[in-house]
Amino acid sequence: MAEILGFLAGAGILALVGALIAVFLRQMGWISRATAHLLGRSAGMVCGAGALYLGTALIFELAVYGRIEGELTLDTVFHGPYVRSMLSALEEPRGVGPVSAVFAWLGFALGKVFFGQFVFCGIVLAWLMTMGSLFLLQLRLRIIADDTQARDAAFLLLCLPGSVFFLLPGAAPVCLLICAILFYLFGKRLKPWNKRLTPTGYGWLLSVCAVLSAAVVVCLAEGKLG
What we know:
- The protein is mainly alpha-helical.
- It has helices at 2-27, 33-65, 74-77, 81-89, 98-113, 118-144, 147-159, 171-186, 199-222.
- The radius of gyration is 18 Å and the shape is globular.
């Protein structure tokens, strides 16, 4: 449990540092108020989703297996074969696919800077990539749709079945970031649209995705997926 608490404490410190940097940039006039708000919203979505996914896996592990203290660590919460191989690759980047290797090398380099905290840096890197992806996605959607649709689309993306992989070390956050960059660059060619789901339809879609996402997290905790 100590590793989990250490990760949460470290993530909290990084979030505080990021918030202070954003405030400084805003006060210096280097970013607009809208941009700062969008960055903060993206960070909040990622941190909230990450905490919920991790919390769901922890509750499952404790309720079903009663794993406590030393047995419950970050590398055993999600212990599917791919996740375990990626966590190992953060310390020794080899034996994974080409896209996964890109993430592994970035996480390895970041871990070297932060005194060998490879797993922690790998998860933080995945969260940062996903946050950047949500930021770019919303930035483009605000132009071709509106701010509400941009927010709803970004939040729904984090609730889709399998979205937990965007918040874990591996190829998923890299692919998401690449897609977000391409969408931002080429999305300006899209024509504005005014169609949108009704609040009821969006609520139902969000509920179904949330239930399926919880099932995916349980499968990851069981080692049957990922």
